[in-house]
Amino acid sequence: MNRSLSSTCMTRNSIIPRFFAALAVIACLLAMSAAHAHGIWFAQRATQLALLYGIGSDDLDSVKRLPLVESIAGYDADWKPIPTKLRVAGPLLLVDSESQPTVVTAVLFNGIWSKTPEGEWLKKGRDEVPNATTSEKNYKYAVRILGPLSAPIPPLPGQTLQITPVAATLPDLMGKTMKVRVLFHGKPVGGARVMWDWLNDPDGKPVKTAADGTVTIKVRNQGLNVITAIYDGPSDEPTKATKMEHLATLSFVLPHAPE
Amino acid sequence: MKTVLYSFVALALLVISPFNTAQAHGGTQPEHGGVVQLVGDMTFELVARADGVELFVEDDGEEITSADFAAKLTIVNAGAKSDVALTPAAGNKFEAKGVKIPSGAKVTALLTLKDKQSKIAANFTIK
Question: What are B71-88's pLDDT values in tens digits?
Fold first, then answer.
């Protein structure tokens, strides 16, 4: 009896570590996949606007990625450019504009990545990883609404994938619905995967845009909101990448009640 | 029983009061007859006078020394946009004499901080 119990325990003991090992492998694969899908967005840091890189609560090293930033731009309410640049301030990339912009944008090229059959992502093209299961060329885009809009946001220069609120007025309270349109090369695109809260719900289930590029979401936060859209487009370097992954964020703040 | 109740109320007040104190970043009432905007813990008061415009700034309830900062206004009125440099004046005041802000204009005050790089903006609509 004891032997039998002992045998059962041994069997369980051998199964449980395997189970957790399998879980760990899956978690690692998911983590690698999530790490691959990093984005850029704008957020306030110590009263200043910063360009951030990461996902969820992972606010990663943006300064070392400054060479990857292809453009930073600011626009007034009439969509006229305002001279805007990034400056390094300690561990942050801060946005420096000559005047207060209504909207700020950025583009970051995150290189070409290939996934091995083992699930590992390497920063190489498929020409260098012959057994790659997939190879992607990654672009990150970010739009931040700072000032009140006087009209819907038009397609902005450099924003190959762009999320735009359909209305010119943003909701004032969290929980309210908001219709956004995702543009690809300035035109509405269906099938883009939209996530309502890139920072606090990065593993949430995406909602796909309709054929007219629109999707209606609830505004998640009475504070910073970072909405994300991901769209896979054709590769412009097929020898190195099988597709181009475009990841765009739209960030804005719903102000809190007066103190 | 009353003693227990009073103790509970006193404890509750003790717990709540630090949060109230922490939230009181700056005044929201105009002190110079202007329009007030609170941006984080910075208070901006814009005063449009017949002979010019004034801007008063407080940081977390304390008056800044305007000479240590720089400020400008961007005025948008009926589609026309103009920038106005403000001159530091006494205390926490900036001013631009001879500038008139029309009713209905949208004004952005941009304050450059002591590091000469960081900026904080406040948006106003003039009635």
Answer: 999 999 988 999 999 999
CB atoms within 10 A of CB A115: 21
pTM: 0.81
Tell me how close the Cα of B26 comes to any Cα of chain A, in angstroms.
9
Q: Which two tokens stand for residue A15?
A: 């199964």
N-term to C-term CA, chain B? 56
Please give the DSSP secondary-structure letter assigned to residue A66.
G
User: And the tokens for B110?
Assistant: 């941009």
How does strand A134-145 pair with strand B62-63? Answer: unpaired
Nearest partner of B58 among B91, B89, B102, judged by Cα = B91
ipTM reported for the complex, 2 dp: 0.74
Put simply, the answer to whether B108 touches A100 (Cβ < 8 Å) is yes
| Contact (CB<8Å) A94/B81 | no
